[in-house]
Structure formats: structure tokens, C-alpha cells
Amino acid sequence: MAKPFLTGEDLKMCFSLFCCVYGIGTLSMPANYAKVGYTWATAALVFMAAVNIYGTICISKVLLVAPKSVRTFSDLGHFCMGSFGR
């Protein structure tokens, strides 16, 4: 007898990966729009996107001046704040 193509465990893993890739926040956007309305939900979405872009730019600037040994967020915290940051 042939092994099934997708088992229950495979489907659970696929669902978990889907949620990790797309994020629970993204998956709940329709509910957020339904609860608070188009204007407030769009404003919140734009604000969160702007904060995310700003944070990414800040981390990129720090990584440009960090030594080549900084490879993880833990290393980055140690570079910025010493042993307290690790």
C-alpha cells in the first residue's frame, strides 16, 4: 500500500508555516476592518508599516557600522549595549 501524500501531521505543519509566514496580524486584518471601520484600520495599518520600515532602516544603519562578527540579533544587542544587550 502506498504512503498517503498528505497526512494530518503534514496539514498541521503546513498551517503552522502558513501562519508564521503571513503572520496572525495579517490573517486577522478582515476582522480588524470589520470591527473598527475602513478609515481607522487603514490608518493603523499605515502607521504600523511606517514604524516597521523605520525600525528596519535603523537596524540596517547599525549593521553597516558593526564589525563583521555581528551576525545575529544577540550579537547586535551585545555590540550596541554590551553584555546587558545579549
What can you tell me about this protein's structure?
It is a single chain. With 86 residues, the chain is mainly alpha-helical. The protein folds into two domains: 7-36; 37-86, no CATH class. It contains five helices and no strands. It has helices spanning 8-22, 24-27, 29-36, 38-65, 73-81. Helix 3 (29-36) crosses helix 4 (38-65). The longest helix is centred in the middle third of the chain and has 28 residues, at 38-65. It is flat, with a radius of gyration of 20 Å. The N and C termini lie far apart (52 Å). The mean pLDDT is 87.
Notable characteristics:
mainly alpha, 5 helices
Distance between the termini: 52 Å
Overall residue-averaged pLDDT value: 87
Order of helices and strands: HHHHH
Number of domains: 2
Radius of gyration: 20 Å
Instruction: List low-pLDDT spans.
Output: none
Chart the SSEs and their pairings.
Layout: H1 8-22, H2 24-27, H3 29-36, H4 38-65, H5 73-81
Helix pairs in contact: 3-4
Subcellular location: Membrane
Pfam families: Aa_trans (PF01490)
InterPro entries: AA_transpt_TM
